[in-house]
Amino acid sequence: MISPDEYSNQPIRLIQISDSHLFTDPQTQLLGINTQQSLQQVLAQVRQDHPDPDLLLLTGDLAQEADELTYRRLEQTVASIGGRGCWLPGNHDDPKKMQQLSDGYFSGTKQLFAGEFWQLILLNTKVPNEVHGFLEQSELDFLEACLKRSPERYSLICMHHHPVKIGSQWMDNINCRNGQQLLDILTQYPNTRAVTWGHIHQEFHRQYQHLQLFSAPSTCIQFLPASDEFAVDTLAPGYRWMELSNDGTIKTGVSRIAEYQQQVVLESEGY
């Protein structure tokens, strides 16, 4: 748990990083993009625009080659941001290796108390050897246990796969298959404020009853919104920032690299 004493009465400042797709060799490219370099550029933008965050949240597909060397380099790269780090797996990740390495900058816990008023609940949507996601009953039980234990706290739910359709057929075929079951649970708890995820490599923000639903862009390639087939976008990599206020409100937005020179291979049919 993160102690309330580590925060003042100011909003909790959170940076969400997602879908870095790092390789063992930092020079390897994904669809023409050096993923290590683009992650470093995103972090430089964070230091410029949102310095000294309280929390850094990484929402999956952190490694394209999920080995210890890749995750260790990821940790070294992002720890320079400061604050506390937490991460969860995506479909490309190895949850067991991530858990084994959660002894340094990254916390291995799935429930984080942030200040007096907030908690983050991290859920694993990975299905072994599949691209789509699913929340096992054990994950849903854990979620409800956290919500029931701390009903006075505002909750931010964090995951990798998207729980709602985003209007892109190929992406909606690989979403969290029981996302509606998740939302049905969350709407029973009025202090649950938002659900955030990665996976879709694009900005998304929608209201669902009392919940805000949003995603973070990738730190490397971006997917073209509203495309029924795989397609990449020319937008620069970026991150999502959040301010979690003591009254339960969330200010949030997406920032992207201001001067980005790498060029993605637009003719790509997948990866």
From TrEMBL:
Gene Ontology MF term list: cyclic-nucleotide phosphodiesterase activity; metal ion binding
- Taking every annotated instance into account, which residue ranges of this chain make up the domain Calcineurin-like phosphoesterase? 12-202
- Please list every transmembrane segment annotated in the UniProt record, as residue ranges: none
* CDD domains cross-referenced by the UniProt entry: MPP_GpdQ
Tell me which InterPro entries the record gives: Calcineurin-like_PHP, CNP_phosphodiesterase-III, GpdQ/CpdA-like, Metallo-depent_PP-like
Q: Which domain of life is it from?
A: Bacteria
Q: Which UniProt keywords apply?
A: Hydrolase, Iron, Metal-binding
Q: Name one Pfam family in it.
A: Metallophos
Coiled coil segments of this chain: none
Annotated NCBIfam families? PRK11148.1
| Family indicated by similarity | Belongs to the cyclic nucleotide phosphodiesterase class-III family.
- Which protein, by its recorded name, is this? 3',5'-cyclic-AMP phosphodiesterase
What organism does the record attribute this protein to?
Pelagibaculum spongiae
